[in-house]
Amino acid sequence: MEDGTLTTELMNWKHIFKLDPAKEISDEDLDAICESGTDAVIVGGTDNITLDNVLDLLSRIRRNYTVPCILEISEEDALTPGFDYYFIPMVLNSKEKKWMMDVQHQAIKEYIDMMEYSEIYFEGYCILNEDAKAFIHTNSYLPDADDVKAYAYMAEHVFHLPIFYMEYSGKYGNPALVEEVSDVLENTLLFYGGGIETPEQAIEMKQHADVIIVGNSIYTNIKQALKTVAAVKN
Ligand code: 1GP
Fold it and tell me: 58, 81, 189, 203: which one has the fewest Cβ atoms less than 10 Å from its Cβ?
């Protein structure tokens, strides 16, 4: 079984695009994303995730591209083999144990045999945008700076998670807080995602985060979104 130790590949990543299987993307845009030089693409979202739309996106990516492909599991029914990596969020600032422990427990119980053959990483998620669908869906509360740092500490030292993910989904976050959190973490990787639309924003967050994740701007301004790759990789 995967022991949570990070592969060298993952440790060198700087940039990831997150594709939402519930949103339409043209072949041309998908080509631009997969050939952009990004380190990986995550397939993941909160609403309307179905096995059909996950499989559709996976096959369109797999058919033509070699970019590493990750399924971020939010919907157990949409689980399918064929991805290079599986990321499983544990929402640290949810008010319900369900989102921190129980959905993961159920998934492991059901898929324990398959887990032996897959690269699976658990992510300590901290959702920091009150208006984000994921925040509402997981009944999270808004932590202050000290709370967030304590969650980062717990992710690394209590749960030994490979990834701590500051999730501002849909909103550009606070770079000063990302910096403070990066000071707490030594071995656990810091992922930042939320509201990155420009190369400047990508650079600002990448100064402190190990990996930045760009999602929504793929669908709103792909030209700018593509520029975030070179911004953090060069
Ligand atoms: C969402 O963190 C990612 O899960 C990226 O956020 O969609 O705001 O870019 P955006």
Answer: 81
Torsion sign (Cα): 54, 57, 62, 67 = negative
- The answer as to whether 180 is a domain residue is yes
Q: What is the Å distance from ligand 1's center to 80 Cα?
A: 22
Distance from residue 44's CA to the centre of ligand 1 (Å): 10
**3-class SS of residue 98:** helix
> What domain count does the chain have?
1
120 CB contacts (<8 Å, ≥6 apart)?
Answer: 2, 85, 86, 87, 88
* Chain segment 52-76, per-residue pLDDT in tens: 999 999 999 999 999 999 999 887 8
The pocket around ligand 1, CB under 6 angstroms, is made up of 18, 167, 169-170, 193-196, 213-217
The answer to whether position 187 is within a domain reads yes
Find the CATH number of the domain harbouring 72.
3.20.20.390
In a domain, 220, yes or no: yes
Q: Rounded to two decimals, what is the model's pTM?
A: 0.96
Which CA distances in Å does 227 have to 15, 116, 138, 170? Answer: 11, 37, 32, 18
